[in-house]
């Protein structure tokens, strides 16, 4: 499955990476790796988390 981010989400991710990198060298990369790992888990098992509301 190919995961795509909308432009606003991509921009927000870049800002978050820059924020963490500014806080501590290497932290931005660690954050991005965790985001990628989380996306990978979701792609592998999308039913792992149940939806609590129909409109979410």
Brief account:
The chain has 56 residues and is an all-alpha fold.
Describe the structure.
Helix 1 (7-23) crosses helix 2. The radius of gyration is 14 Å and the shape is elongated. The protein contains two helices and no strands. The mean pLDDT is 91. The protein has helices at residues 7-23, 27-44. With 56 residues, it is mostly helical.
Q: Keyphrases for this structure?
A:
single chain; mainly alpha; 56 residues; 0% strand; 2 helices
What topology emerges from the helices and strands here?
Layout: H1 7-23, H2 27-44
- Report the total helices: 2
Give the C-alpha Rg.
14 Å
Largest sheet: none
What spatial form do the alpha-carbon principal axes imply?
A: elongated
Distance between the termini: 21 Å
* Unreliable segments of 5+ consecutive residues: none
Number of strands: 0
Overall pLDDT: 91
| Secondary-structure content class | mainly alpha
Q: What sequence of helices (H) and strands (E) makes up the elements?
A: HH
The portion of residues assigned to helices is 55-70%
What percentage of the residues does DSSP assign to strands (E)?
under 5%
């Amino acid at each position: 499955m190919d995961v795509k981010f909308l432009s606003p989400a991509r921009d927000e991710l870049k800002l978050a990476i820059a924020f963490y990198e500014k806080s501590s060298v290497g932290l931005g990369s660690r954050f991005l790796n965790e985001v990628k790992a989380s996306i990978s888990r979701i792609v592998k098992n999308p039913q792992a988390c149940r939806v609590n509301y129909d409109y979410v």
